[in-house]
């Protein structure tokens, strides 16, 4: 039975079939959200209320409803001031920042300069920092007065304003170098209940919010991994918004009364990324082997038949939707060539182990099983190990849980800038690798030098030139077995308005409204 048939069967069940449990105290007796409540069903579990280790874009919708940054990006990925009312480059290595008067946390305590300094320290110290990979260096805070401070760097970081959009601020005394499960923030919502194990959270409108109050009174957040469950729940009115849906689901929901579909071009790169921590005598340590294996993958078939057109095959090492991205090459499907080149390199009886987390991308299990079949045609065996959300895949990614060969993963472009994702994925150093803060052990000093020069270039033209060079260098190392850029698709009940879906697969929860 095809995925499309399965989905249609699930839809036929309607509200009488699949369910996701009770909505909670704010639900009506029928289980549907109340007139002042919105229910969100996420395809991946929300395991944290901050983003130190987060790589799940949709989680930011909830996280930023509770915690805020000095500066954020709007739906066009342009900087907008939030907790700061001034964020200005005053010297090549210095930014002047002023906290907006009246900003405070949900308990009424003010947002202070010390909170910013502590936040930067905690993000830099967390083991396996996701956000840390974007920063070529961590800025230091130099306080000028009670509300004014300088962000100093040793070298120019001309996109520091974009980078700081990823730093969510928490009271200094409550912040830690780990994922925060609770605690107060300065955002328009407060968390009234949370369960990391189930991924269920309840948010209520912050009565002490310093800015414009959120229009929606209560938000129920829950983890519903099965797409057919999420679709049926939306169709029956049990939930209001479901994210990261497949074309199958979009086709079934499009045109239904009371349901709307939002789409945006994505800025996330999904990849089957090689493990670069292999010893020198391992086949995958040879770029020629990594390249030869790519010929075994039928990318168009995966895009069109497995994902039903929900993505675009990558033509470079970062999404073409990002500023500064260039085409560096295209994948070629030729299993006979894969087999012959591997034989010429002396590679025989190769077995690869794939790991990934459930929900990492649309049709993840189907994609992995299809890849196994494709590799077998080239004489390569493969095994699969799937991790549930909230499991220990991070330990494996860092090389501490067990050995693996290929990681199914996604890496976002949260700033809309190509330099940011290049810094996060490909600017590894020996020092970072010692703390396992590189991207799967990817360390090439020449490439890191080029990316570093690009990140420090104040002149945009020079930055683009260096960035293009770095992308070509990365492509020549063959870091991916295959990669693609997913399209962002969200479905919602029409009673919720002004979502403003962003290319980052997130939206401003406080701006959303309920129709009468």
TrEMBL record:
Keyword Ribonucleoprotein annotated: no
A Pfam family per the record: SBP_bac_5
Keyword list, A-Z: Signal
Keyword Signal: yes
PROSITE patterns linked to this entry: PROKAR_LIPOPROTEIN
Coiled coil regions in record: none
Annotated segments matching region Disordered: 177-198
Domain Solute-binding protein family stretches: 82-428
Name of protein: Glutathione ABC transporter substrate-binding protein GsiB
